[in-house]
Amino acid sequence: MRVYRGTFVNPLNDRRYIDFLRDHIVGVQDGTIAFVEPASRLGEMATIHGFNPESDVSVFMGNQFFIPGMIDTHIHAPQYAFTGTATSCPLMEWLEKFTYPTESRFSDLGFAEQVYSKLISRLLKNGCTTGLYYATIHNESSLALARCALRAGQRAFIGKVAMDRNAPDHYRQATATAIEETERFILDARQLNSGLTHPLVEPVVTPRFIPTCTSDLMSGLAALAAKHHCLIQTHAVESIDEVAFVKSLHDAEARHEDDACHCSGGETGCLCERDIMILDKLGLLKPGTVLAHAVHLKEEEAALIKERGAAISHCPLSNYFFSQGVLPLRRCLDWGVTVGLGTDVAGGYAPSLLTAIRETVVSSRTLENRELQEGRVGGPRLRSELRVTWREALWLATMGGAQSLMLANRLGSFAPGKLFDAVLVDPQAPGSPFDVFIDAP
Ligand SMILES: [Zn+2]
Ligand SMILES: [Zn+2]
């Protein structure tokens, strides 16, 4: 057994609370936490668990502290190669002009390995120990991403991207091919874990988004996810141009017959031609489904996401550039929807969940400020209920991510039975990006 002594910043099950466990000990056996106790119980724990209270204990004192490894619930690994490029384009144009041409280069394994190994090492430096990745449509380079993660010791949920329409010929697959290749990827990726006590790589069924996936492809992928017990990731109601494009596809396919419409309609209008309802009808909305963005969500759609047990990946930085809106995060949390945070590289230019945490707080204040500026709240109540605190944002980056990936019993906080998946923060390390004050308020 290895024992770690120091300060542990520990998110509780209730997202409003983070515990500061000062001078505590965490006992770890084969990667799993056996106990979390005050250091005053060191001798007692040593007797119970049979470890040496000196040589088996690593001590981290001073200003150092542990946080649970952060979980990025939405990141496009190949896009790291063009981070920060052309963020002034609307989403659909950005995809065509920059994203698909870059991603298609990942048929070259050497190029893929170069980008992926740099990305994973950067993410680990920034405290991200688990990523929910989009790779590309290529099986071999998607497996290369898995091998890079394994080498670096990062937990990686990886999607070989499936798309069969509205993309260049060289960057899409026939429907049947995309389904077969996805199944082959699932089997091959799981093979990579052989010999590990705790698997690190897990394949994820990944219909890119409705504009590039036919209904046949999506229902085929839903069947694969059920057969192989895979998580699902896709994008939903991300931007105004994306929502409009999905509606136009729906009109073109004339799938909305009166007798097929079961949505409430009414003031919000028909929801059948929008992402959430379409995904649900195709069997893609379920526990373990992570929907990136969801900025233009309607309340009925949030209720459906909650009912199905799916989650939203909130990507505040990327949303500023591509979504023409801000996710009403506070409302989503109040409605009981599961939410994790995503960097959305390269829609988001920062491969860091610390930035995502900051932007989560800032974007919630943007919504609040707009309400105040427009006079919708005010007078004695100079505060709306839209703000999200840094505590909640850190909670979303850890426990929220764990819940989104159906791993809240294994990740996201320090508790017996969970994996010891931790980041040691040392504010006084050489070159530290911030300063520490003695006796600061
Ligand atoms: Zn309808
Ligand atoms: Zn994305």
Description:
The structure is a single chain. Helices cover 37% and strands 20% of the residues. It contains 13 helices and 15 strands. It folds into two domains: 73 residues, Roll (Urease, subunit C, domain 1), CATH 2.30.40; 335 residues, Metal-dependent hydrolases (TIM Barrel). Strands 6, 7, 8, 9, 10, 11, 12, 13 and 14 form a nine-stranded parallel β-sheet that branches. Strands 3-2-1-4 form a four-stranded mixed β-sheet. It has a two-stranded antiparallel ribbon with strand order 5-15. Helix 5 packs parallel to helix 6. The site of one zinc ion has 6 residues, from strand 6. Keywords: Hydrolase, Metal-binding, Zinc. It comes from Paratrimastix pyriformis ATCC50562. This is Guanine deaminase-like protein.
Q: What's a quick, concise take on this entry?
A:
By secondary structure, the chain is α/β, with parallel strands linked by helices.
The chain-level structural class is: alpha/beta
What is bound: which ligands? zinc ion
For the termini, the CA-CA separation is 38 Å
Mean pLDDT: 93
User: Using only CA atoms, what is the Rg?
Assistant: 22 Å
Roughly how much helix do the residues carry, as a percent range?
Answer: 25-40%
Descriptive tags:
TIM Barrel; Urease, subunit C, domain 1; binds zinc ion; 2 domains; 441 residues; four-stranded mixed β-sheet; alpha/beta
Topology:
Layout: E1 2-11, E2 18-29, E3 32-38, H1 42-49, E4 57-59, E5 65-68, E6 70-76, H2 91-104, H3 109-125, E7 128-134, H4 139-152, E8 155-159, E9 161-162, H5 175-191, E10 201-207, H6 215-228, E11 231-236, H7 240-253, H8 275-281, E12 289-293, H9 299-308, E13 311-314, H10 316-322, H11 329-334, E14 338-341, H12 353-373, H13 390-404, E15 422-425
Parallel strand pairs: 1-4, 6-7, 7-8, 8-10, 9-10, 10-11, 11-12, 12-13, 13-14
Antiparallel strand pairs: 1-2, 2-3, 5-15
Helix pairs in contact: 3-4, 4-5, 5-6, 12-13
Residues 261, 263, 265, 270-272 line the site of one zinc ion.
